[in-house]
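Hi P.,

Sorry for the delay on this. The queue was packed all week, but I finally got your sequence through. Input first:
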Amino acid sequence: MKVQCVICHAHGTLEDDSSLAKKLRNRPIHTYMCPECYERIRANTEKRKQNENFRLFRDHKKKVDF
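Then the structure:
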């Protein structure tokens, strides 16, 4: 399967039997990132997590009383 990285637009191939190829075929909302971009984003995120100003925003669930 031919794929293209959404960040650097590098072209690559995946084996048709791989789980990532199946995920990309069946759920078009999922995107492909090349290993270099994935590693760079992971490293930058880890650096930001070490910063004291890092905040992870999550949805606040409202408590329902019956």
